[in-house]
Amino acid sequence: MIEQISKQKIFDVIKSIDSKIVQKIIIFDEVTSTNNEAKKLIQNGEEEGTIILALTQKTGRGRFQRIWESPKGGLYFSIILKPTVSPEKTTLLPLVGALAVSSTLRSYGLSAEIKWPNDVRVRKKKIAGILLESDAYKSHLHYVILGIGVNLNIDINVLSDEIKNKTTSLFQEHHAVDYVKFLKELLLQLDTYYLLFLNEEYETIISEWKKQSDTMNRRVKIVSSTDEIIGAAYNVDNSGFLLVITDSGEYKKIMSGDCLYFDEL
Known about the structure:
Blueprint (H helix, E strand, L loop, with lengths): L6 H10 L7 E8 L2 H10 L6 E8 L17 E7 L11 H15 L4 E4 L3 E4 L2 E13 L2 E11 L10 H4 L5 H4 L5 H20 L3 H11 L5 E6 L4 E9 L5 E5 L4 E4 L3 E4 L4
Parallel strand pairs: 1-2
Antiparallel strand pairs: 2-3, 3-7, 4-5, 5-6, 6-7, 8-9, 8-12, 9-10, 10-11
Helix pairs in contact: 1-6, 3-6, 3-7
């Protein structure tokens, strides 16, 4: 089931892409985390548009330091970005990543939907996730690392009992797909949405995100390290923050946290 992935084909695909964002790719058989490798490369002067891709990760990371299980057959990469924007605008980049993944999955005929802030799901099961890390000082943004993990040609039975019942993959939902072709389509989608971001077309990003999201108009419970909010998700603002009206009638802006749907609890 797990295809032999040709590194040369990946290099050839990167060369063939007419992209404003993708400049080069560095491929590892295994790393602890592609985001960690990206940080090391940035310290050595690596520029924007470098992709760090690994065939497996020992300790792939999700949000809130959770482990992203990364067996062979999945797609795991991070891309270094250095947009000339204020640090506050980087909160839109997880939406950019989620849109690129969701749009790619939809091109394969899957009914992919985005769960705020950055989970991509098929039939209510997680198939992909986005992790954004950045470094800034005051109004100067040094860099952004956008990490993307997609359960591609994975038999979910190899995953831990803790997550396999709420996880799916392209192999599970569709059939095994060509790893390199999927990567190429995903990078082209990422290029499209990142250019919208650079051109400050934030409303277009938000509008498209809402079309592909299943969070709007849902009764939700938002859990953070300090709070728990229950109410109805009615919109996202131009920073990508979730807007919720609580059961007591308060209007809340949610910047981060776990979003749980009541009808799935």
